[in-house]
Amino acid sequence: MSSTKEIDALIEMMAKLPGLGPRSARRAVLHMIKRRSTLMGPLSDALQTVSATARECVTCGNIGTAETCDICASAKRATGEICVVEDVADLWAMERSAVFKGRYHVLGGTLSALDAIGPEELRIPKLMDRVDRDGISEVILALNATIDGQTTAHYIAGELEKRNVAVTSLAQGVPIGGELDYLDDGTISAALKARKAI
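Request: output the structure for the sequence above.
Response:
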């Protein structure tokens, strides 16, 4: 019997995480073992707690530990604006910027004919219910600039045309500090088309 069977199993589990391959997982596990008293015990406790308490917000789809997330529960966020994102990682990225002060709606993916993902498989009907119920004045579509993301944005915009609500999307183009030489053709094209007066 191998004396490293349990350690190998942990490395294998860690390697399944996004951004970690077998080599990175091995380094992470060795680091945790070396600091097991200050890192591994607390990490194990945190994993158990999150496993037992994490849940999806019933309103927007964010992840938290309560039925309604802090953003949806905050009266300060009731601006009449909803920012629609593909997944929770996108919501968290928007929150890191600390620019948007409204509420969110997580779709849980994008429309995809190839994968048989239609509006009912996503949280699009719930979005329409929120718009109808909560007096929303603007829906900001912050979806990825992929074919599926843009198809989803067009579908949602079409559904919202029937309602008295402004529909906007994030501007696309050259990032701050970006150099043209490092940008892909699609980004340069979008930036050129979205140009404005100086």
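The beta strands are 55-56, 63-64, 81-85, 103-106, 138-141, 166-169.
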